[in-house]
Amino acid sequence: MSTSKWIFTAALLVSVSAAGQQPSDTQSSAPNAASTSAAQGTTARNTAPAPTPSALPQPTTMDQVVDRFIEREHGLMKALSTRTPVVETYLQNLTADPQLGPVPSEDHYFLGRMDMGETVDRKDYLKEQDKGMETRLMGGFNKLFKVQYQPLGFSWMVYADRTDFDREHYEFHYIRREFLGDIRCLVFDVMPKKNSGKGRFLGRVWVEDQDFNIVRLNGTYVPAPRNSFFFHMDSWRLNLIPGYWVPSYIYSEEGDFSAGVKNKLAFKAQTRIWGYDLKKEGKDDELTQIRVDSVKDESATAQDASPLQAEREWQQQAEDNVIERLTRAGLLAPEGDVDHILQTVVNNLEVTNNIDLPRPVRTRVLLTAPLETFSVGNTIVISRGLIDVLPDEASLAAVLSHELAHIVLGHNLGSKYAFNDRMLFSDDSTYSNLGFKHIPEEEAAADKKAIELLKNSPYAQKLDNVGLFLKALQARASQLNALLTTHLGNPLGENGTINRLSALSTQGPALDNAKLDQVAALPLGGRVKINPWDDKAEMVKTAPVAITSARDKMPFEVTPFYPRLVRWVTPNAAGTAPTTAANSQPSTN
Ligand SMILES: [Zn+2]
C-alpha cells in the first residue's frame, strides 16, 4: 500500500479543541438511527434519530475523543442494525511470477446479504459454500481441513468489535493527525487489554475531527483460535448519510513473497458493501412484492392493440419486471451517469448501422464484479467488473455490440417474465429464478452480427485494441474462473477458453508484458464506483499514473482501496440527495 498520498500534518500534538471549532451545518439535521423496523424503506433522513453529534460539547482532551468515538461506534451499530446490505468479496490467490510479481493463480467469489442486527449474519446469493458454525465464528479460515475461505470473515471488519468496543477491553493511543482525502483525521492505535478474550481488534483507527466517527480501520484480530487465523484488513467508511460513516470497502491481503518464506498461502481480496437502502425482506413481505404498476395503461389512442403491438407490450412488461426485480435485489444500479456513457456507445453503433428499432435500447449497470453482459428485451446489462477492466471505448463497444446484436436479431424473447408471479422470490434466490443465457447457435449468430456492426462503426479502426483485450483475457482465463463465471448471462469463455467475439481475438499485436505502453486490460475497480447507500453507479475520476514496470499493469487484478473521503453535503432543495434511492420502496410495515 502506498503511503505517499498521505499528507502528514507537521504538528503531532495539537490540541483537539482547535479541531473542534468547525461545527458543521450539514450535521444540524438529526442523523438517522433506523432503529425500528417501521423505518425500513424510508430514506435515512426520516428515520429515528440518535444523539446529534454537533449538539454535544466538543471534546477537549484525547481521552474525551476516545470516549466520543467509542460512543459514535455504538451509535453506528444501532443505526445500521436494521440494514441488510449486499456484501461481495472477490479474492485472488497469488503466485510469484518472475516478470510480473505476485499474479493470480486462482480466484473465489462470494455474494450475499448481510444482516447487520445483533449478530452480523449473512445470506448468500451463491449457495455452494459449506459453512460450519465453528469456522464461521472464526472469521478467518480453517487450516485443519483445507484452506476454506469463510465469506463472513471478510465482512467482520465492518466494525472493530461488535460486542465489546470499550475501555474495559481496549487501550487507545493517540498517534498523530493525518488527512484522508478531504478529511482531517486523528489516528489512534487500538490494542486489546490482557486476557480480554479471543478475536479482539488489533490495529489502527482514523477518526474524523468533526463528529469523531471512525472512518477507517486497519489491522487484524487477536488471538486467533487454534488451527485458524484472522486476515489482515483495511476497512473504509463513507459519509453517505448525515452524521454517519458507513462501512463500504474492505481490502484483505496475506502473503509474503520474500526469499525463504515457508508459508506459501497468499491472496488479496476486495470486499464491497452496497445496498444499505434496500428493503429488508420479511416474512410478511412475500405478497407485497407484486407491483401492479408494471401493467401499463397507455390507452391514449382509441385503437386496440394489433397482435404485433400486443406482443411488444408483453415483451416490454417482461423487461420492466426483470429490471425492477434485479434493482430491488441490489444487483442493478438505478439508471444514472454511467448509462449515459454506455448509451452513447450504443447509439454510435446504432446510427452508423442504420438500426431503427421499435423500442429504444436502454443500458444498465450490474453492480457485481464477474465479467458479464446480458440483455433483457431491449435493455443491455453490463457488469461493473467488466467496465472496470476494459481498456478503451472500442473494447466497450465490442462487448456491447454482442448484446445489441441479440436485440437486432430478435433473440430476446423471454416473455415468460411478463407474469408477475415469476418475480416472487427471495432476493438471495435471484440467480436460480432469473436467467438470460442464449443457446450456442444464437451466441454464434450474435458474435457474427456484432463484428458486422463494429466494422461499420466509428470503432472499426480500433479493433486491434479489442483483439489485445481478448488476448489478455485469454492469458488469464484459466486462473480467473470465478471472475469469468456468470450468473445471469452467457460467460465470455468457458473452461479456460475465451470464445466471445473470437473472430477478433487474433487481431492486433501480440500480447507483450514488457511493452509498457501496451495496456491490454485494467485492474478491477478503476472505472466505476458504486454509492453503497443508494447503489448509484458513477465513473471514477482518476488522474493518469505512469506505468513504470510490467508489474504496474495488473490486468484483471485486485488492488487495495483508497477512496477519496469527503463529507456528506446537504442537498439543495432542487438537487438530488445522496440518500434518495431511486429504488427505495414505500414502507409496507
Ligand atoms: Zn450472447
* Small molecules bound in the structure, each named once: zinc ion
Q: What are the low-pLDDT stretches, counting only 5+ consecutive residues below 50?
A: 1-51, 128-148, 283-297, 573-589
Major sheet summary line: 11 strands, antiparallel
**How are the strands of the largest sheet arranged?**
1-6-7-8-9-11-12-13-2-3-4
Q: What is the CA-atom radius of gyration, in angstroms? A: 25 Å
Quickly count the helices: 12
Basic shape: globular
- Termini separation (Å)? 46 Å
* Average pLDDT for all residues: 79
Class by alpha and beta content: alpha+beta
Structure explained in plain terms:
This protein has 589 residues and is α+β, with helices and mostly antiparallel strands. It is 22% helix and 22% strand. It is built from twelve helices and 20 strands. The protein has an eleven-stranded antiparallel beta sheet. It has a three-stranded mixed beta sheet with strand order 14-16-15. The chain has a two-stranded antiparallel ribbon with strand order 5-10. Strand 2 (86-97) and strand 3 form a beta hairpin. The longest helix is centred in the middle third of the chain and has 22 residues, at 307-328. The chain is globular. Mean pLDDT is 79; it is low at 1-51, 128-148, 283-297 and 573-589. The structure holds zinc ion. Zinc ion binds at residues 402, 406, 438, 443, 446, 490.
